[in-house]
Amino acid sequence: MKQHCITRRDFLKEAAAGAAAAALPGSGAFAAEGGAARSVVAVARSADALTADLKVNPQAARQIVLQAVAKACGKSSAKEAFAALFKPSDVVGIVTTKHLNPTHPEIAGIVKQQLIATGVPETRIRFPQSSIDAARECTALIALPALKAHWLTGIGTVLKLYILYSGKPSNYHDENSAKLGEIWNLDFIKGKTRLVIVDALRPLCDKGPQPDPRYLWNYGGIIASTDPVAAEYVGLRVIQARRDEMKGEPWPLSPPPLCIAAADRTYGLGTSDPAKIRVVKLGAEKGALI
User: Fold this and answer.
1) Where are the beta strands (DSSP E) in 219-283?
2) What are phi and psi of 167, to 5 degrees?
3) In Å, what is the CA distance from 121 to each residue of 34, 89, 116, 139, 188?
4) Phi and psi based region of residue 101 (left: phi greater than 0; alpha: psi -120 to 50; beta: remaining)
5) Residues 6 or more apart whose Cβ sits within 8 Å of residue 221
6) β-bridge mates for residue 221, sequence order
7) Is residue 230 within 8 Å of 272, Cβ to Cβ?
8) How many CB atoms lie within 10 A of CB 32?
9) 1, 11, 140, 233: which is deepest, by most CB within 10 A?
10) 98-114 burial, b if ≥16 CB within 10 A, otherwise e?
11) pLDDT in tens, the chain (290 residues)
């Protein structure tokens, strides 16, 4: 996609303004049912997704993964959704969060099994978290991060997931986090991400460096979309709402999540405009935060 030329100062000013607005849970209403939404984000939740000792309940987790994927893709079943997105000839990379509130392996396993059930041979499924060569080999990617705030980028979920593919992770921290979208446009990544599934079973709503148990909570959710920016925006709204709930007043993320507005306005990866996002909620309503 053609990018317009702006100065670095203008770039950061625009990204910061958009991100500051996005960080407020009440900053805009999501598109209504039947409206002219550009992107659909499904949020499926289950009070039984995690057990009392914080283990993943396989049956409940599988149900909300499949529900979220089907709704995000506008299909009657997850099998139909996966079949529309992936072919048996594809080499599919499932990219997960490896460290600091990592993706639950059970969720990655559910996604892998669904790919196999759809007809993608197990030998053509990869987990290319940090390998540029492995990512280059893939013809399709599934972004499967865990929902979390991040101490260097504000939010460290979807857009930050591919940071190791840059070869220079430190170049995308602090105010430079606004540039995370450019990684998604690298020649061996661009256009490959067909599905985003966010593990929101137990998100982290405040920065580390190590996950602080005070800021982890049982959300019991899966967020799915084919639009990475919309998925990130919805995840941000959940995190921000949880932060405000904890403090009893607005508690903005610091640093602000500059990457979301920039991914939309500068890199053309999706939409961060809530009026163009339709959120479909499934399952448990209590504590949904959106």
Assistant:
1) 221-225, 277-283
2) 80, -5
3) 37, 8, 6, 14, 22
4) left
5) 43, 44, 45, 46, 49, 64, 200, 201, 238
6) 45, 200
7) yes
8) 10
9) 233
10) eebbbbbebbbebbbeb
11) 334 444 444 444 444 444 444 444 346 889 877 666 689 999 999 999 999 999 999 999 999 999 999 999 999 999 999 999 999 999 999 999 988 899 999 999 999 999 999 999 999 999 998 899 999 999 999 999 999 999 999 999 999 999 999 999 999 998 899 999 999 999 999 999 999 999 999 999 998 667 899 999 999 999 999 999 999 999 999 999 999 999 999 999 999 999 999 999 999 999 999 999 999 999 999 999 99
Tokens 């019991």 found at: 220
Please list the residues that pair with 204 across neighbouring strands: 148, 216
d(CA 116, CA 119): 5
Token pair in block for residue 33: 């049912």
CA–CA gap between residue 106 and residue 14 (Å, rounded): 39
Q: What is the pTM of this model?
A: 0.90
Beta-carbon count within 10 A of 16 CB: 18
- Round to whole Å and give the CA distance between 157 and 100: 11
Other CB atoms within 10 Å distance of the CB of residue 187: 7
